[in-house]
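Hi L.,

As promised, DUF397 domain-containing protein:
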Amino acid sequence: MSGCRRTYFLLAPKEGGEHDWPPGVRRFARPTQDECLGVPAPEGSTYRLSRRAGAPGIGEFVDAEPLLAVLMAQLCQTRE
């Protein structure tokens, strides 16, 4: 991991709480509001956290299940 640098993913309200995220992933959530997951950046810098458009509409959030599968594969690899 590269210090406190993270890439952020916006999830629908309450969707992130339904999963056990791998170590290093930080969940930011308030009841009835969008959730944000901070994933450790593997290397280098990340962009500043900002929203470039209005609030997302229905279907514009990141789907938590495929994201969880990718993060588990990348962050929880077993060492041979």
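The chain has a mean pLDDT of 77.

Thanks again for sending the construct details.

K.
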